[in-house]
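README: folding subset

This subset contains proteins for which both the sequence and a predicted structure token string are available. Records are stored as plain text. Below is the entry for Small multidrug resistance pump (109 residues), shown exactly as it appears on disk.
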Amino acid sequence: MNSYLLLFFAIICEVIATSSLKLSDGFTNITYSIITILGYSASFYLLSLALKTIPVGIAYAIWSGIGIVLISLIAWIFLKQTLDLAALIGMGFIMLGVVIINLFSKVAH
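--- output ---
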């Protein structure tokens, strides 16, 4: 399987796990606690596979950048947490950085 596809699925698992972590209420809700543990486990496993061919710095930049934006959007939409203009601009810069890495970095390819 393509390493970037593995990285994409790792990010999705991490986003699900982090969203569930909030809902686990300090690991007192067993359902969300289990989803959190399974999500992080799957995420790190998939990330480890992706790191066989993607440099760790590049993978982590993509992982964290996309993860930050997705978690923030989920928190905004589903958990009714607000994002101000500075947060939105900052996330825009993060996404711009991910795009620049993927389009122009010779290390990323």
